[in-house]
Design goal:
By secondary structure, the protein is α+β, with helices and mostly antiparallel strands. 44% of the residues lie in helices and 15% in strands.
């Protein structure tokens, strides 16, 4: 956690991103990746510390499957990062601050948690509309017929 905090503090003070850092550690305790939030620098809303750490760890290990690794992060992961952590097969998260702590300084993770839990109360923020389902399902069927890898 100390390294994640130091990385977050450094890039935060360089206006690269917010106060978020993360590290991926393998089963032996070796640090595989340390990253921070780089949303502002990269102009990429997905460049959260956890996502950046997962990407770096995947490249270092040569796999998308981070089974056996843990992630240490300065804040409770947002919904996007929680999804990425689950997709990466990471089974343990150690976090430093709570969702309310992020909300207190102005981050809006709580709105996304509510959207996932209850549906979106404000369509001016996001509208979801289904379309072209049959065409997309044909793509899914083709993938399944070719017995492609599931991940």
């Amino acid at each position: 956690m100390t390294k994640a905090i130091a990385k977050a503090r450094k890039t935060m003070n360089q206006d690269i991103g917010g106060p978020f850092g993360a590290a991926i550690i393998d089963a032996s305790g070796k640090v595989i990746a340390i990253a921070s939030n780089s949303v502002l620098h990269d102009q990429d809303p997905t460049a959260h510390a956890e996502i950046n750490a997962i990407r770096a760890a995947g490249k270092t290990l040569g796999t998308h499957d981070l089974s056996g690794c843990i992630i240490v992060t300065t804040a409770y992961p947002c919904p996007m990062c929680l999804g990425a952590i689950i997709w990466a097969n990471i089974k343990k998260v150690i976090y430093g601050s709570r969702p309310l702590d992020a909300q207190t300084i102005g981050f809006r993770d709580d709105y996304i948690y509510e959207f996932i839990k209850n549906g979106l109360p404000d369509p001016s923020v996001l509208e979801l509309e289904e379309g072209f389902r049959e065409e997309c399902l044909s793509l899914f069927r083709e993938y399944q017929e070719k017995q492609k890898s599931l991940y």
